[in-house]
Structures
1.
Amino acid sequence: MKADAVHQPVLLRETVELLSPPPNGIVVDLTIGMGAHSSELLKLIPSGRLIGLDQDTEALHHAGQTLKDP
């Protein structure tokens, strides 16, 4: 997956609503891809933790840059 690729996340709102993690929850994204779902989920877990995995090393690198802690 190229980092400059345009990606439209599928069922983003529905996924976030369905998971609805608590503010201190742990979320595991097994296909983090470009990080769109994880980015939204991070907003719901300000004192929680996100663990992101993907088989695509380019996607992991991109997600790491996109979701990096300030």
Note: Strands lie at 26-29, 49-52.
2.
Amino acid sequence: MANLIIDDHSVVVALSALEKVEALRGDVTVTRSAVTGTRIVPDGMAEVHGVRAPGTVLPGVIMVGVWRSGTVATFAACHGRGPAIVIDLDGAQFDRLVVTVGDPEHVQ
């Protein structure tokens, strides 16, 4: 499962070795100043829409990679239909990050 690493300057979606293969890319890093909002959702996969380009999907099991819907690009690292953090961005490579986490209340 991907880890969210948040500090004063950046937000990093740190992918496992397997997730890097599934996503066909490395870790995702954005500046903190690009973050416009965050929220916790009960099902991260329900937040991911559009066409996979590139990435890996097994419905209800895994969504790792980039999804594009119109002009919106979402990077997802979702495993199962569990809780996730959605991070809205402006001026970054992606418009949103959606990452499943074990305990979203304790991600800082």
Note: The first strand starts at residue 3 and ends at 6.
3.
Amino acid sequence: MFYSSHQILTYKRIYNIIVGERGVGKTYNFTKLGIAEGIKTKQKSFVWVRRYEADIDDIKGDFTKDMEANNEFPNYTFECIKGNIIARNIVTQEKFIIGELIPLSLYQRKKSKPRPFVKYIVFDEFIAEDGTSYLDNEVYKFINLCDTIIRHRKNVRAFLLGNAVSMVNPYFAYFNINDLSKNFTKGKYYVVENCDYQEFREMRRKTAFGKSIDGTKYGDYAIDNKFLLDDTSDVMAKPKGKEEIEFIQTHSTIFTKI
């Protein structure tokens, strides 16, 4: 019913982009994945990225709360100190760093630090909820950070998690992604998963809040994973004889490529 990364991992791409229903479990899945890897290796195994420092401040105190509430790792407790996620074995009292929280806005200060054991880079909420509050040259900054972490290794994966806010975003522009009609859309170095968890959607529709938004534009977005800010009602069919027509009105700074 809830999101699982099992299938997208089989594609073995560097960049793994997941667009899914609100609450389907994207963040939960990758938090668990990163922590499990960190506990297994007893090394800093994942980096968790958000856009701004305030975003990191909002989550650092509660980053592992869902894991603890659901008893996912019963032999461990967790704390965040100076942006590092630290696991403590409650039997042996052994402590070690398993992950790091990084604001992309401070990538210049963070990128020079070596992270040779990081296996997963997770950028949560990579599509801005307001459709506009991206950093200048943001894709460059994210890929630069990935380069610092990945270097020459082949086993590192970057995951970009987002809700269906808008197809008009700097990441889709950079990778030239304009069609998500399939559940999985593949490129040479990326794969996009457009989630379709029908059982989860039907479950959510039956909740009190789900009933209140079902059939609305917000319900289309929050339940049915339809892009909230994209309105194609005034877009005409392509005239015959025209090979390609493009018209996107947005902030030009968003689309600066490397």
Note: The longest strand covers residues 95-103.
4.
Amino acid sequence: MKLQTLQALIFIEEVGSLRAAAQLLHQSQPALSAAIQQLEEELKAPLLVRTKRGVTLTPFGQAFMKHARLIVSESRRAHEEISQLRGDWEGHITFAASPAVALGALPHALASFSHEYPGVTVNVRDGLYPAVSPQLRDGTLDFALTAAHKHDLDADLEAQALLVSNVVIVAQSQHPLARATRLAELQDCRWAFSSAPRGPGAIIRDAFARHGLPEPKLGLVCESFLALPGIVAHSDLMTTMPRTLFLRNAFKDQLCSVPIEDELPSPTIYVLRRHDVSLTPAAAGLIRWIQHHTLNHHLSVAA
């Protein structure tokens, strides 16, 4: 089982084409096809279905992919860790961040990190728990900065508290209930969740339950922090979002924070990662910068 073939399989899944995957690997298409065939013979199962429109994974291929991704990511981490321990500060870090961090301390943390480790490439993605869980498990993400209910975390994930997020209820400024002061007034509203109902983007469910109200009416799930403010600004939907996102979005003039007096949950943002996978020294260094600037940011806000 060759590492290059596993990487090729990942590329094939991403681009849906043997030819495009071969180009990414600087291989000929016949050579790549032969390598995949050899892997299929080794596993005694077909991994790909070839059609006129491209290539898709068989059920065997889909089951194998989580192993392929983990093997490739762990190999990369192992090489980068040893290289960084030797003093060669190069490599890659990929992580997901919630808007509470991305719009607060993260830009300063990344600037400090890049100054200290200019040879390390950083890839930042949007993401909340539980949507980030598969990517943490297969090694696509080194870690995630996301709100979560710690008691509800999957057993294979480790959570380190980073900050407590201030959440507000948001609606378009002309919404009939834009000046509501009690959650009970919002029972008939439709809601936009920014994560699956189990995740922090559905925190209004916790608020309703805490005040003895029926389940809020789900109108839309939008896991794009960029799209959510615009969607709410042009609809009758209500949503919850970190105050930092409410204050720093392109549609702020068309939105309002609903002045609810009932207490709302204040979710904790965690540094989330697999407990059985060690971070590279560079990834650990980036987390330290994030923690440092998060503390400084909140001290400056408090002052």
Note: The mean pLDDT is 92.
